[in-house]
Amino acid sequence: MGHLILRNALLLSILMTLLPATLADTGRVEKVTVYPDRAIVLRAIEVPVTPGAHRLLVSGLPARLDRDSLRLTAEGVDGLQIGAIEFRSVRGSERVHPEARSLEARIRDERARQQRAADRVEAAVLQYAFLRSMAEQPGKEGTRAEAWPQALRSLGTSAREVLESQREAERERDEIGVVISTLERQLADLGSAQRDHTELVVDYQSRQAGSVELKVEYSVGAVRWQPIYEWRLDTEGSRLAILQRAAVQQDTGEDWSDTELHFALGRPQQGGRLPGLSPWYVGVAEAKFDMAMERAVPAPQMQRADDAGSVPAELAGTAFATSYRISGRASLPGDNSRYLFELARHDLDANISARTVPKRSQAAWLFASARYDGAAPLPPGQVSLFQDGAMVGRTTFSGLAPGADLEASFGVDDRIEVSYILQHDRRGSEGLLRRQQRQERAFLIEVHNRHTRPMPILVIDQIPNSRDERIRIELTGDSDAPTLRNLNDQPGILGWQHDYAPDQQRRIRFGYQATHPAEIEELSGW
Predict the structure, then answer these.
(1) Residue 332 in contact with residue 254, Cβ under 8 Å?
(2) Backbone torsions φ then ψ of 483, nearest 5 degrees
(3) What's the CATH code of the domain at 25?
(4) Which of 33, 101, 320, 484 is deepest in the core (most CB within 10 A)?
(5) Is the pTM of this model over 0.70?
(6) Residue 9: is its pLDDT beyond 50?
(7) Are 347 and 239 within 8 A, CB to CB?
(8) SS (H, E, C) 293-318
(9) Is residue 275 part of a domain?
């Protein structure tokens, strides 16, 4: 009995493969969800079905679809069953990019023009060879001597005309060659991808006739999107506007026209595997004498911006899976061109302040900070910075969670003057019984707020850190006490945070000294 069932199933399978496949319409792309490295496409196809066992051919699917991700569902006819699915790869001869197709046509036309110019060159060469042969036989029988001058003039005129025609044809041929080379480089920049596609042959059985809506869902690569931002600071209103866009490119070979478009914040490329840890062992290290010179702890670098009209999307999903749905219907051609879609806009109350690191630069940077109150995280991306409508630079954004504080530099503030003056740098000794060496430096920092508004200003500097217990480092007694120590958890980084009234000038006295036994002759990194 079991052998009979197996034989019948095998026979049915063979018969199904012999059935002609009915070509279905390619349908419409109903929904696309774009991830940073792929997209999930949902295509709907209206298919008429008849009773019995049949095969259906679905053509025009992208060549790069992930075959393991394919899902088929059918609605509209009760009892319809989908059987085996066969994938077929179909090579195409047409380029994906419409501009590439246009360039190919232009190159063909230019090559035809070039060939016509080359033909004129060859014709002129033959004409000139004929004239030369006539010139080499001036005494040919039948030509009277008195007719030679007229013949020579006629021969010279013809030769000049032929040579001029040859030079003109050669110039045109070479100019067309330059045009063809330029077009070929443009074509190479657009890529050589052809419009290959995938076909599906779907076996199905139906007990009745009717119309079925076939839903084909699949994952496809050659798609990428990344967030880009504009941060616009209004200093008069103390407001920070965050404009979030999606820059997307897709080279799948299929066009997504008039579809529901989503941009997902998930990262499927990271997979579902949690990074693991290996055992960590600590032992006793052998003592070594290090001859390397110690270096001073560097000052922190100021954060700065390096030079380098649509409807916002609707936020959808859950707290664990968030996406932006573009308003209305959208189209995204599969030509690898870059398209921008607006995702969200946030208007935040901003705290405006300034910071300066006079040891590195006698200038102040304008800073803005705000509490981000959006419902979805802001993923990492490139940021263009604007202050009161003027672009001040670009920076890289590492991302932010809802409820966290956002902070950014908006360039140098020319209305704040900073000076950094070394008052003395000296060394000496002290003590009678136990001699100690002392080295001391003192600075005067002057900050002048030229704004007509109050400004919180943070002055940042540092003192060195000792790696030898015999070396003691401390602020000098006449230094103004810093309001912040170990700024950003960095040892030795100090800050003086004050509110400056309009046109207020403040002086900060800052000095540090190092004392050590006399047997230590020099300090490294001082």
Answers:
(1) no
(2) -85, -20
(3) 2.60.120
(4) 33
(5) no
(6) no
(7) yes
(8) CCCCCCCCCCCCCECCCCCCCEEEEC
(9) no
The β-bridge partners of 52 are 206
In this structure, the answer to whether residues 255 and 364 fall within a common structural domain is yes
Amino acid at 515: T
Same structural domain for residues 374 and 449? Answer: no
Question: What are the tens digits of pLDDT across the range 434-460?
Answer: 678 889 999 999 999 999 999 999 999
60: helix, strand or coil:
strand
Give the tens place of pLDDT for each residue, 201-246.
Answer: 999 999 999 999 999 999 998 898 999 999 999 999 999 999 999 9
112 with 229, same domain: the answer is no
| Residues in CB range of 309: below 8 A, 6 or more apart | none
**Rounded distance, CA 436 to CA 517, Å?**
5
Q: Which long-range contacts (CB under 8 A, 24 or more apart) does 156-162 make?
A: 158/127, 158/131, 159/128, 159/131, 162/124, 162/127, 162/128, 162/131
Produce one character per residue of 294-312: b if its CB has 16 or more CB atoms within 10 Å, e if not: eeebebeebebbeeeeeeb
Burial of 289 (0-12, 13-18, 19+ CB in 10 A): exposed
**413 pLDDT higher than 70:** yes
Q: Give, in degrees to the nearest 5, the angle at Cα 139 between 138 and 143.
A: 95
Q: Is 373 a residue whose pLDDT tops 50?
A: yes
In a domain, 38, yes or no: no
Q: How far apart are CA 474 and CA 350, in angstroms?
A: 37
Strand partners, 496: 459
Number of domains in the chain: 4
- Listed in sequence order, the residues at least 6 apart from 364 whose beta carbon sits closer than 8 Å to its beta carbon are 354, 355, 356, 412, 413, 416, 418, 447, 457
Question: Do 389 and 506 belong together in one domain?
Answer: no
- CA atoms of 491 and 143, how far apart (whole Å): 110
CB atoms within 10 A of CB 449: 25
3-state helix vs strand vs coil in the chain, percent to 5: 20, 45, 35
374 and 261 in a common domain = yes
Residues in the chain: 526
Residue 523 lies in a domain: no
Instruction: Please indicate, yes or no, whether residues 448 and 394 belong to a single structural domain of this protein.
Output: no
* 136 and 199 inside one domain: no
Give the three-class secondary structure for 389: coil
Q: Are 37 and 222 in contact (CB under 8 A)?
A: no
| Range(s) of the domain holding residue 359 | 223-267+309-412
Domain stops at, among 350, 380, 412: 412
Task: State how far the Cα of 301 lies from the Cα of 263, in Å rounded to an integer.
Answer: 35
| 2 falls within a domain | no
Domain CATH for 165: 1.10.287
Task: Report pLDDT digits (tens) over 247-300.
Answer: 999 988 888 999 999 999 876 655 556 667 777 765 554 544 343 333 333 333
Q: Which two tokens stand for residue 327?
A: 């308003």
